[in-house]
């Protein structure tokens, strides 16, 4: 476990823990690139106006301002107050509008960056954390097929991580909204807000709230909860919804879309995808498919990967940019992996070989050996002083460096090299221009632990 | 060139430009790891007290505060005012103290992160930029050898980047301070501050300032400028300094240290290292070796990689942690590479192959082909709709995707696959379980352009 951080809500990792995080980040990047997503980064700050456009989150936003007040006043007058981004969707939307003339639509991008939220320090939620987002954004239109594809890309990415079994839960806003309309409830966002609290409050409380806060009758509340109780790992949710006897055009559109997602889910990622008609997602801007992901056995951790379709990710004059995307909460995931020892790095440092020194004058020769090894991708470092060999070996042992290299000059001037595997104690002659460690020792690897 | 950013001082790259930046970051990371440096990241924020401990930079610091004022007041009362870090050295020093019980000393780490400085928007300097730092920090003592090694690691890293020839300029604070003392100037920091302006003001102006501001005689000013005029690519600077006839113990120590750095520089990186006795470095905390790096022909860009030795990087009670390190200004370097087209990505997107659709029902089969290719590390994407082949090829062409894959079902039910290199127009039969693109098309590569 990580030591207690000196500032709560701002997690920092020790070097061995960072290797686990790097493995997660590398795996995500590699997968996203294999699926043809381009990397972008946006600046950490946006104007406050831009950030608060979607409302409701202002309490969590960190404004930034120069400590030198006169400089700050001049800058604010010129460009507005600035603040740190709290997600990667709002900045991406702004980037798309800023650069629309330079991008090819549909534009596929991934973005892995830190975001900041001014959570209360005492409740232990992160105030700085890393998100990994993928989105596809179109110019004017965006084929529905991307709603299917993006879920599959995330399943591919998550499947390669050292994490427990997961379930990607999918729902559709049109389905829910059409159903509510079909039973006479027209304020769909208000109904969804109540349904969103199902896991927290339970069905009875939500039924009561639907009647009190949204003006539903007991029958309407009952029907809405019946819809939310449907959960299938295949397309059979369609019949279950139909059995509730509600007719609505938007409902049909939603059913058909969700059925298309599930059909490919069953075919391409069996057991990974669930049609879960209780999924509401808090944010108002989703307009169709919505996604959430839970780790089986870790449901209380909350969703580790969420997103959805937004018909209007961004607008610029008369242009509209629809999008669909998902976002992984990397820090939440890595904190859980580290906190429960779900994965381990094969060693704690990148170094595979310590080149020892036989005497103080041999440092430069040792660097020559190191250069030869590095040319073949073998990470190594050279001892800083010619301490006794036992001490140099201990240096390697303490750090988890598996090999120590010894060079010596014989009386006849010939240099001999040997390399010792300090785990087994085996020491063998080695040629600096040829020797390779076993493949599993070449680089640090991270794998799920057996715990 | 990048489009004008919407907020000056906060550069953002287009996807093709980002590939160049990623290449630089990947190359640095790979090199640092080959030399046995561990990755760490620190939080983006420190307390203002921590940041201002070294003084002088307060005008440039961005404080952060929640927009919700009541939340903010409570947090400041509890943990102090927070601000964004302006470099990676101050946070690293704090990290070392926080985690001293969990680290092995000497501790080698690299750290690649964004930093923020509240520069005036109008002078065009970046307010958000990426630094790549390496440091070695010891507990109590740190062998001088690391001063030699770290310069060589940075030379190795910079040599692998698509940048013009560079010179790493090295000097030594002890040498300068001892020399000044030897000629009767005791306020070394004040002398260094004047010498630091040599490139900007020229020798005459600096000589005058030394007399006016530091109280030097004309002879003392002359001697200080003679020292600063010494520049050699080998160890001959020692004789040139001795010829000035100044005797001082600290001067001898500095000469001996710098000679050791240069001896290995000549041996291991000929032509890359210069003993430049005018290098002063602004910051007060350096105590021995100091480094700066310029791109030949781009001297006005300023130093792209700087650092030095600090006998007291951090302290904790009675413990002192000496360190030596260098920091690359990645954004400055990448801006120059992009601005002058010094390097180019082999294509603008990660995708190597577009899998086309013969009809709307073939999407899932096309995904099967894509899955087979991705299993061999071939980045690909599937067309979102079965537009005419000409349109699908145009989609690939516009993005710089080199290959388009075609699958069709013959009358006898047999599926045939072909792949077209859209640059040459050559189209050949291909097996999705076996086909590989030429090695140079497998991944995006970035290389120095011929311009």
TrEMBL record, chains A, B:
Q: Tell me which residues make up the Aminoacyl-transfer RNA synthetases class-II family profile domain.
A: 24-350
Q: Which Gene3D superfamilies match?
A: Anticodon-binding domain (3.40.50.800), Bira Bifunctional Protein, Domain 2 (3.30.930.10)
Kindly state which reaction or reactions the protein catalyses.
Answer: tRNA(His) + L-histidine + ATP = L-histidyl-tRNA(His) + AMP + diphosphate + H(+)
Question: Which residues are noted in the entry as L-histidine-binding?
Answer: 87-89, 117, 131, 135, 281, 285-286
Q: Which UniProt keywords apply?
A: Aminoacyl-tRNA synthetase, ATP-binding, Cytoplasm, Ligase, Nucleotide-binding, Protein biosynthesis
Q: Under which EC number(s) is this enzyme classified?
A: 6.1.1.21
Kindly state one GO CC term assigned in the UniProt record: cytoplasm
User: Does the keyword section mention Cytoplasm?
Assistant: yes
SUPFAM superfamilies the UniProt entry points to: Class II aaRS ABD-related, Class II aaRS and biotin synthetases
Q: Does the keyword Cell membrane apply?
A: no
Which GO annotations describe the biological process of this protein? Answer: histidyl-tRNA aminoacylation
| GO molecular function (one) | histidine-tRNA ligase activity
Q: Which family does it belong to?
A: Belongs to the class-II aminoacyl-tRNA synthetase family.
Q: Which PANTHER family match?
A: HISTIDINE--TRNA LIGASE, HISTIDYL-TRNA SYNTHETASE
Assembly, in brief, is: Homodimer.
Kindly provide the name given to this protein in its UniProt entry.
Histidine--tRNA ligase
Query: What species is this protein from?
Result: Kocuria subflava
């Amino acid at each position: 476990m990580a030591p207690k951080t000196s500032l709560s809500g701002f997690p920092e990792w020790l070097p061995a823990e960072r290797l686990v995080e790097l493995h997660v980040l590398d795996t995500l990047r590699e997968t996203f690139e294999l699926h043809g997503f381009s990397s972008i980064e946006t600046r950490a700050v946006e104007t406050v106006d831009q950030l608060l456009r979607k409302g409701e989150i202002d309490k969590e936003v960190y404004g930034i301002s120069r400590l030198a007040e006169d400089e700050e006043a001049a800058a604010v007058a010129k460009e507005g107050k600035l603040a740190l981004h709290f997600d990667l969707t709002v900045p991406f939307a702004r980037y798309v509008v800023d650069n629309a003339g330079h991008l090819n639509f549909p534009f596929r991008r991934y973005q892995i960056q830190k975001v900041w939220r001014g959570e209360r320090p005492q409740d232990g939620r992160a105030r700085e954390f890393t998100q990994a987002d993928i989105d596809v954004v179109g110019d004017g239109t965006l084929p529905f097929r991307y709603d299917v594809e993006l879920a599959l890309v995330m399943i591919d990415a998550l499947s390669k991580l050292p994490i427990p079994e997961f379930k990607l839960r999918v729902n559709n806003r049109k389905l829910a909204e059409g159903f509510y309309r079909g039973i006479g409830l027209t304020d769909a966002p208000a109904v969804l807000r109540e349904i969103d609290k199902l896991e927290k409050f339970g069905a009875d409380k939500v039924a009561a709230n639907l009647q009190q806060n949204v003006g539903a009758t007991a029958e309407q509340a009952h029907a809405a909860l019946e819809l939310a109780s449907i959960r299938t790992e295949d397309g059979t949710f369609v019949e279950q919804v139909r059995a509730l006897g509600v007719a609505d055009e938007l409902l049909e559109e939603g059913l058909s879309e969700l059925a298309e997602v599930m059909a490919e889910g069953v075919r391409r990622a069996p057991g990974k995808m669930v049609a879960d008609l209780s999924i509401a997602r808090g944010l108002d801007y989703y307009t169709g498919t919505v996604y959430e992901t839970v780790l089986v056995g870790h449901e209380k951790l909350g969703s580790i990967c969420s997103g959805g379709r937004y018909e209007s990710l961004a607008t610029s004059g008369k242009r509209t940019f629809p999008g669909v995307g998902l976002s992984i909460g990397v820090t939440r995931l890595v904190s859980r992996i580290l906190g429960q020892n779900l994965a381990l790095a094969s060693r704690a440092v990148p170094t595979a070989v310590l080149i020892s020194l036989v005497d103080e004058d041999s440092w430069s020769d040792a660097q020559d050996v190191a250069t030869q090894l590095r040319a073949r991708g073998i990470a190594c470092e050279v001892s800083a002083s010619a301490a006794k060999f036992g001490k140099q070996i201990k240096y390697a042992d303490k750090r988890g460096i598996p090999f120590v290299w010894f060079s010596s000059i014989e009386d006849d001037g010939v240099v001999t090299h040997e390399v010792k595997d300090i785990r087994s104690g085996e020491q063998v002659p080695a040629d600096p221009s040829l020797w390779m460690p076993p493949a599993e020792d070449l680089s640090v690897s991270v794998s799920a632990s057996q715990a």
